[in-house]
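About this split. The held-out portion is used to measure sequence recovery: a designer receives only the structure tokens and must propose an amino acid at every position. Recovery is the fraction of positions where the proposal matches the reference. Here is one held-out target exactly as it appears in the evaluation file.
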């Protein structure tokens, strides 16, 4: 690939209040980024008109694109659709980011810079310098407990396994067998990071401060929490069977920038 170029995949469902603010925040950071790139809004047929707002923003910004999906199909499926879109084009780095300003766009330069030495960079709430603002105690307990539970079951050292602010190098993402990813919610994030580790990829955590959304409703539900309880052990079992070690491509990855 001739030059580095990033794509931020931004799933939306009823985010009409947040999307313009996120686009403005990303635009403000563009001059600070180590290389240029784009944003892809993946809208799941939002009934509140988020898709139309995304189209209007795309008409004003040549770096913003929109992928319309017919209906709500889960966060994991939205990210996979965005990844497929990005891998069909010449992007060297693909990122996940929420559309509610909980993931600070100001951290994008640090994630992209850290990717020079890693296959996957995680925006981490649970390493020194990271944190959470605005969550009630039970949400903190669920999130932190979920990461600790997954760490113990999977036997890995990553501190923030459930976070969704990530930067993948293209070669690693293309090597993952994304067709075999089954999970949604928390477990989707756990599974992608675990797959990278199973393939021998390097993962680093960059501290971020996660801030609870100011507008709209959280997509978190008890079903997502319960999914993690049984799917994390199932994920470990699939790993022991060798199911997570399969790659989608035999093309060797180029060396990391050192």
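Reference sequence for scoring:
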């Amino acid at each position: 690939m001739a030059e580095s170029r990033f794509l931020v995949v931004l799933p939306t469902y009823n985010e009409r209040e947040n999307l313009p603010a996120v686009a403005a925040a990303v635009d403000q950071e563009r001059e600070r980024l180590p290389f240029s790139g784009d944003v892809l809004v993946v809208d799941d047929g939002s009934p509140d008109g988020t898709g139309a707002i995304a189209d209007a923003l795309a008409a004003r910004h040549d770096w913003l694109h929109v992928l319309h999906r017919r209906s709500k199909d889960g966060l994991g499926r939205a990210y996979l659709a965005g990844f497929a879109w990005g891998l069909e084009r010449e992007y060297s780095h693909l990122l996940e980011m929420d559309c509610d300003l909980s993931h600070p766009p100001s951290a994008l330069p640090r994630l992209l810079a850290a990717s020079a030495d890693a296959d996957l960079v995680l925006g981490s709430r649970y390493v020194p310098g990271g944190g959470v603002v605005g969550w009630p105690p039970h949400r903190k307990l669920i999130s932190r407990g979920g990461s600790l539970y997954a760490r113990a079951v999977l036997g890995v050292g990553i501190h923030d396994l459930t976070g969704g602010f990530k930067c993948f190098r293209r070669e690693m993402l293309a090597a993952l067998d994304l067709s075999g990813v089954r999970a949604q919610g928390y477990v989707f994030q756990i599974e992608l990071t675990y797959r990278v580790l199973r393939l021998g990829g390097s993962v680093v955590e960059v501290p971020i401060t996660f801030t609870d959304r100011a507008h709209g409703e959280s997509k978190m539900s008890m079903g997502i929490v319960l999914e993690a309880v049984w799917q994390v052990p199932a994920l470990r079992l699939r790993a022991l069977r060798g199911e997570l070690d399969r790659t989608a491509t035999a093309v060797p990855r180029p060396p990391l920038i050192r």
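Annotator remark: The CA atoms of residues 26 and 105 lie 6 Å apart.
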